[in-house]
Write a structure and sequence with these properties.
Chains: A alpha/beta (181), B alpha+beta (91), C alpha/beta (390)
CATH superfamily of the largest domain in chain C: Thiamin diphosphate (ThDP)-binding fold, Pyr/PP domains
Order of helices and strands of chain A: EHEEEEEHHHH
Mean pLDDT of chain A: 94
Structural class of chain C: alpha/beta
Number of strands of chain A: 6
Largest sheet of chain C: 7 strands, mixed
Number of strands of chain C: 15
CATH architecture of the largest domain in chain C: 3-Layer(aba) Sandwich
Distance between the termini of chain C: 57 Å
Number of helices of chain A: 5
Number of domains of chain C: 2
Radius of gyration of chain A: 15 Å
Number of helices of chain C: 12
Distance between the termini of chain A: 27 Å
Radius of gyration of chain C: 21 Å
Largest interface: A-C, 18 and 23 residues
Strand content of chain C: 15-25%
Oligomer: heterotrimer
CATH class of the largest domain in chain C: Alpha Beta
Order of helices and strands of chain C: EHEHEHEHEHEHEEHHEEHEEHEHEHE
CATH topology of the largest domain in chain C: Rossmann fold
Chain lengths: 181, 91, 390
């Protein structure tokens, strides 16, 4: 089982990201589960969401305490919440930031950074980073395919938003694959 | 009815009109009596009667004493004081 | 064709109501139930579901409208949560007393004060004595399936009682996971159109809601109790019929997981059963004999079934998500009353107000249960898991 924890701020679409990831994994023939931890919901307040992916049905219902992957949609959260709490040894952190991965003090885990905010401004003309992050996550983890992320995004988003977001997902995927190689 | 097995599910009363069997007129200790000469047939008593048992007669109004509980509202509402509440058993 | 999709638990319930072709829905929104009725309102607006949606100004009015609709003889559905079900309280008795087969989905949420929107079972458990059947479910598939089953159980002529399908708020309502939505033709086959035996009809006038004087009131209450007893068989039968058509079943009143040879048996309701199963498998791999008995039906309470299922156990660990302040908590009291004093039973209060019940918590419970076996005595009858006492 792979467990993913998403950190973001209210309004950044972390819950949607976690759910799209689950839907994408399901399209790849996996079992999946995604759920939020709802605090007092406000725009800007730190929020958390979880995704689990497995080859067999997922029965556990507790929150993800020892994630394999941590996604940080807003790097300013490093000062607010312990986003690395419980991260597994040899785990992976994906951060939305224009800084270099080396600028983040993370031990025993791979760190990737993508400037999703700039990419979102460029492609979507709005600071919606959640689908971009998913494209990047697919690239660095290979946990789900690009195609399944695109299909899940298409299913979840409506109307005009689809086309731009699909392009954003592809761009982010390409960018991260390029940075790995 | 003797046994529970004759009861309907949910206490539903399947036949309408069963309340007619309950002659509530026996509850009365004061009885409204109309002085037909004073009655204008204004319908006030009919309108205000909570039991709906007063109706217009050829002359004056007619009260169905089988169901009149003797509440006295008709007497109170009568503009000409044509209705007197009389003790039961006195004609 | 049946299709498997990744959806919220709340959506699964809405899909079930749609498959049941409910005629009337009346509800008032409350977190975490809102998605259920919002989805249904949307289905009606889109023409996917032909039903009357009555927006009420409170839960009290919503359930009252359901009573009117159900008395007319149509399939009726509502949903609520927490203070909403508390506000329904007096009307819930009327629904069951009139023997109306209303189905209500409850998104379980703690009761105020302190204000809390997260999951525990206090809301529905507090309606224990209203004469409704209460079923508790473990995952989103079971939410869909049990909602469909609930109509068939309630509408059974031997039963005619309303049913609450209780699902953990947020933990299930707001979780997405794969759920198979059955084909409409299968649902129709399982659940044909509802035909009321007696209903309000201007052509055949009848009275609903008449009074029963002291000479007869007891008999009506006795009849309700008999119907609830008969519901036990109906719940099991309906689950079997469900299996034949959909190839899924839930055991009816209870569901046992590795209980046969278990020394320690968990007794629990709702989504925590999944977490317990996960931990059990790890302990089983090390030869430790643990099992879990899921109580699906809290009303009627399956005394005989539980007694039989736990007869070989040494310790029972009840995971309790509600309280009866001033005495034994509800599930624990039922279990103790069922198995008697000979079988050691410990009550573990956990997950109140949405407190996460972790796998570590479950491991801790197993340890304490084994400690009771080793020492031959129970240290404390009631343990609060994760409580910050100091």
């Amino acid at each position: 089982m792979k467990e993913i924890r998403f950190h973001g701020r209210g309004g950044q679409g972390v819950v949607t990201a976690a759910e799209i990831l689950a839907a994408a994994a399901f399209k790849n023939g996996k079992y999946a589960q995604a759920f939020p931890y709802f605090g007092p919901e406000r725009r800007g307040a730190p929020t958390t969401a979880f995704t689990r992916i497995d080859d067999k049905p997922i029965r556990t219902r507790s929150q993800v305490k020892k994630p394999d992957y941590v996604v940080v949609q807003d790097s300013s959260l490093f000062d607010v919440v312990d986003v690395l709490d419980g991260l597994k040894n040899d785990g992976l952190v994906l951060i939305n930031s224009n800084k270099s991965p080396k600028d983040f003090k993370v031990k025993n885990a791979k760190v990737y950074a993508i400037d999703a905010t700039s990419l979102a401004e460029k492609i979507l003309h709005a600071p919606f980073v959640n689908t971009i992050i998913l494209g990047a996550l697919a690239a660095v983890t290979n946990e789900v395919t690009l195609e399944s992320i695109k299909a899940a995004v298409k299913e979840r988003l409506a109307g005009k938003a689809v086309e731009g977001n699909i392009r954003a997902v592809e761009e982010a995927y390409k960018l991260m694959k390029g940075s790995i190689e | 009815m003797n046994s529970m097995r004759e009861l309907t599910i949910g206490a539903v009363i399947k036949k309408p009109g069963s309340s007619r069997r309950n002659k509530t007129g026996t509850w009365r200790n004061l009885k409204p009596v109309i002085d037909i000469d004073k009655c204008l047939q204004c319908d006030n008593c009919q309108l205000f009667c909570p039991e709906g048992i007063i109706k217009k007669a050829k002359k004056g109004m007619e009260i169905d004493y089988d169901y009149c509980k003797g509440c006295g509202i008709c007497a109170n509402e009568c503009p000409t004081r044509a209705i007197q509440m009389v003790k039961e058993g006195i004609d | 064709m049946s299709k498997k999709v990744v959806i919220h638990g709340s959506r699964a319930v809405a899909e079930a109501a749609k498959l049941a072709k409910v005629n009337v829905i009346s509800a008032y929104p409350i977190t975490p139930q809102t998605h259920i009725v919002a989805d249904l309102a949307e289905m009606i607006a889109n023409g996917e579901l032909k039903a009357e949606y009555i927006r009420a100004e409170s839960e009290h009015s919503a359930i009252s409208a359901c009573i009117g609709a159900s008395a007319v003889g149509v399939r009726t559905f509502t949903s609520t949560s927490s203070q909403g079900i508390a506000l329904m309280h007096e009307v819930l008795f009327i629904a069951s007393g009139l023997r109306l087969p209303i189905v209500m989905s409850v998104a379980n949420r703690a009761i105020s004060a302190p204000l809390n929107i997260w999951c525990d079972h206090q809301d529905s458990i507090s309606q224990r004595d209203t004469g409704w059947i209460q079923l508790y479910i473990e995952d989103n598939q079971e939410a869909l399936d049990t909602t469909l089953q609930a109509f068939k159980i309630s509408e059974n002529s031997e039963v005619l009682l309303p049913t609450m399908v209780c699902m953990d708020g947020f933990i299930l309502t707001h979780t997405v996971e794969p759920v198979e939505i059955p084909d409409q033709s299968l649902a129709d086959q399982f659940l044909p159109k509802y035909k009321a035996q007696i209903s309000l009809d201007p052509k055949i006038p009848s009275t609903f809601g008449a009074y029963a004087d002291p000479e007869w009131y007891m008999e009506f209450r006795y009849m309700q109790n008999e119907a609830m007893e008969r519901a036990k068989k109906a719940i099991l039968d309906v689950d079997n019929q469900f299996k034949k058509i959909f190839n899924r079943s839930y055991g009816g009143l209870i569901s046992e997981y590795k209980c046969n040879d278990a020394e320690v048996i968990f007794i629990a309701m709702g989504s925590v059963v999944g977490t317990i199963k996960e931990v059990i498998d790890r302990f089983r791999a090390n030869g430790i004999k643990v099992g879990v008995l899921k109580v699906r039906s809290f009303r009627p309470f399956p005394k005989e079934e539980i007694k039989k299922a736990v007869s070989n156990a040494k310790v029972l660990a009840v995971v309790e998500r509600s309280l009866s302040i001033g005495s034994d908590s509800p599930l624990y009291a039922e279990v103790k009353n069922t198995v008697g004093p000979e079988l050691k039973t410990i009550c573990f209060v956990a997950g109140l107000g949405g407190r996460d019940i972790t796998e570590l918590d479950i491991e801790e419970i197993i340890k304490r249960a084994y400690n009771a076996i080793k020492t031959g005595k129970i240290e404390r009858e009631v343990e609060w898991i994760g409580l910050r006492l100091k």
